[in-house]
Every structure is written in structure tokens, then in C-alpha cells.
């Protein structure tokens, strides 16, 4: 008789489940929910300059696009739509700051964007404005073994070669520094995170 049909107190039970003291009573083993852990979400590495803090525009965009905020005494034009878009992406990704701002991102941006404090990658003296290849080592170390998407305005051929060589699913998302994160970025990232590619 299989376990599903064993109803009486004298039914056969696997020996490993028997009480060691031979006392009456039987309790079927519980199955821990950790036995079927869901896969961790993919990581989204988020640059700040050129993704959230816009620059390079010929004329200051209207207030419907962004607003100036002082960061350590320097004005930064912060995209109005960036906060809501990142909030939506946080439902599908683990967001990580991948920016030369490092800890300053958590010091200044959560209150503006409506985000919680995020993990911060440290780049030390390697940070160079206008390029992104110096981010590869820390990003790769943090995302080892996990699917990764990365949005940045300074992705280079070296970055794309690195992404192609990565054993885990990897998606690089280029942004324009004067526009930043756009709606189509969000739609593409959500689709990528949900279509199974990011979880293989």
C-alpha cells in the first residue's frame, strides 16, 4: 500500500519516519519551503550620470522632463520619469547602483526618486567619467552566478565583448545622456526578466 492509501494506525510507514521511542502517534514529515527556493531575481546595475542625472542637452529641457537638484553643491538635472520607471523595475530586478557616485547615490537619490537604499558597487580610484569599462570587475564580481542587466550611457565595445563572454544571461541597455532611462527601456527590461532568458 502506498503512503497515500495508508490510513490506519497499523499501516506500514517508512522506517526513517518512525518515532525512535516506539510510542503511539505518527506525524508525517513536513516539507520545508526552502526545498523549492525560487530563483533569485536578475540584477539591474544602474548608472546615474546619463541615466538619471541628465546632461549634454543643447537647451535646458522643460520642467516636465526633469528638475535641478543640488548634490554636494553641484546642480544635477534629475529626470522626472526615472523614479517611477525604476520603481517598476524593482518589482522584477534587484537594483544596484553602478556609478561613480558610489555612496552619494544613496545619500541623495532615494528621496528624489522614491526608492529605498540600494546596494552600492565600489570602484575606488578607477572611476572615469564618460567611460564604463572600469565598472566591469566590480559588476562581474557582484553578479557572479546570476543574470544581469546593466543600463549605462557609456557602454563601449569592451563592455559588449565582456557581456558576450559572460556565462550567465546578460543584457546591456544603452541610454542617451540627454534623455536617460526611457519607457521603452523599462518595457524591454521587464520583458527580458520575465521571458525565462534571465532565469535559465
Please explain how this structure is put together.
The chain contains five helices and seven strands; from the N terminus they run E-E-E-E-H-E-H-H-E-H-E-H. With 200 residues, the protein is an alpha/beta fold. Helix 1 packs parallel to helix 5. The strands form two sheets. It has a four-stranded parallel sheet with strand order 5-1-6-7, sandwiched between helices. A three-stranded antiparallel sheet has the order 2-4-3, covered by helices on one side. Strand 6 (148-152), helix 4 (157-165) and strand 7 form a beta-alpha-beta unit. The chain is globular, with a radius of gyration of 24 Å. Mean pLDDT is 83; it is low at 1-32. It has a single domain (43-199), classed as 3-Layer(aba) Sandwich (Rossmann fold), CATH 3.40.50.1000.
Helices and strands in order:
Layout: E1 43-46, E2 53-54, E3 66-71, E4 74-79, H1 82-89, E5 94-97, H2 103-113, H3 136-142, E6 148-152, H4 157-165, E7 170-174, H5 183-194
Parallel strand pairs: 1-5, 1-6, 6-7
Antiparallel strand pairs: 2-4, 3-4
Helix pairs in contact: 1-5
* Residue fraction in strands: 15-25%
- CATH architect. name: 3-Layer(aba) Sandwich
The unreliable regions are 1-32
Percent of residues in helices comes to 10-25%
Task: Report the biggest beta sheet as strand number plus sense, adding barrel if it closes.
Answer: 4 strands, parallel
Structural class: alpha/beta
Order of the strands making up the biggest sheet: 5-1-6-7
Give the averaged pLDDT, no decimals. 83
CATH class: Alpha Beta
* Oligomer class: single chain
Order of helices and strands: EEEEHEHHEHEH
